[in-house]
Structures are given as structure tokens and as C-alpha cells.
Specification:
Elements lengths: L1 H18 L10 E3 L5 E3 L7 E3 L3 E7 L6 E8 L7 E6 L4 E4 L10 E8 L5 E11 L6 E9 L25
Parallel strand pairs: 4-10
Antiparallel strand pairs: 1-2, 3-5, 5-8, 6-9, 7-8, 9-10
């Protein structure tokens, strides 16, 4: 009987936690005017269109150039404001424009990848803005070749005359 009650409580708890995970809609921003009336701010009419969504470095030498650029245009009717651009790890560092991009204008975002990490590159840059399209995920791919192994400077070899090594007294 105790097991039945415990199992029922567990099932109820799981069901309730599932419903607690539902996505809630965020209400539009409200502004209070000087007269005391509240007005709802419409969603932004800015939009962002990138020339390319993926940059392929191909094969890059260890320590080589890991810089690329993503050009974009504000195709909307309002100024575009990029609030955040973030790499998927510390080896991918994007630099976004801080000033608003006016409608119809083009700008670019630079991304630096640390090429002192050999192996395949599959990284993402997330761009958050006031665009209608929401977040945009850009990708960089390629392969960083391993660092060349430096051979130690050859040392002078002493000839072995075939005599065995003798221990000192």
C-alpha cells in the first residue's frame, strides 16, 4: 500500500513538473506617457540578412590567420540594434558593431578563431538583436593542421669502439 501511494505521488509530481516547463509568452512592452496613459510598444520592424551563414576556413596552418567577417544588411524599416554576439567557446571571439544600423545600411561582424588548437573547427556565433527574425546562428568550419614537430639539433655522436662499459671502482 505504501508503495502504491509513493508511486502515485511520484507520477503526480512528474506530471506537474512537466506543465511547469511550458513556455510563457512575454507581453509587449508598455510605456507610461506623461498623461498617465499606458501604451503598448509595437514589435521592432528591424530585420537582419547575412550575406553568408557559414564561413569555411578550409585547412589552416597551426597559428595561422583565424579571422573572418560576416557582412549583413538591415532589411527592415527600423534601426537594427545588436545587443549581444557570443561565440560557442572561448576560442571563438566575435566583435559586433555597437551603434544602431539604419534601414538599408550594411555593416559587418568580425570573428576571430584561435588557430593554436589543432583539429576540426565546428563553432557557432549567436547574434541577438531586435530583428523580427530573433536570434541568428552563424557557423565557422575548417581544420587546423597540427603544429610541425621540431627535430632537436643533432648532437655529436661518440664512436663506439666495441669495448664494454666499465663501472668505476
Amino acid at each position: 500500500m505504501k508503495r502504491l501511494v509513493l508511486a502515485s505521488a511520484l507520477v503526480c509530481g512528474l506530471c506537474l513538473s512537466t506543465f511547469a516547463q511550458e513556455k510563457k509568452e512575454v507581453p509587449p512592452k508598455q510605456v507610461v506617457t506623461e498623461t498617465g496613459n499606458t501604451t503598448t510598444t509595437p514589435a521592432s520592424n528591424a530585420d537582419i540578412k547575412f550575406e553568408k551563414m557559414v564561413h569555411d576556413f578550409g585547412n589552416v596552418k597551426w597559428g595561422g590567420n583565424g579571422d573572418c567577417e560576416f557582412k549583413f544588411t538591415n532589411t527592415g524599416k527600423d534601426p537594427l540594434i545588436i545587443s549581444l554576439c557570443q561565440g560557442s567557446c572561448g576560442c571563438t571571439v566575435p566583435t559586433c558593431p555597437k551603434e544602431p544600423i539604419l534601414p538599408g545600411k550594411t555593416n559587418s561582424m568580425k570573428v576571430h578563431y584561435d588557430t593554436k588548437r589543432p583539429g576540426p573547427i565546428t563553432k557557432q556565433v549567436t547574434v541577438t538583436s531586435n530583428a523580427k527574425s530573433g536570434q541568428v546562428i552563424l557557423k565557422i568550419t575548417g581544420t587546423v593542421e597540427a603544429q610541425p614537430i621540431e627535430e632537436p639539433f643533432p648532437t655529436e655522436k661518440k664512436p663506439n669502439n666495441g669495448t664494454p662499459f666499465e663501472k668505476g671502482n
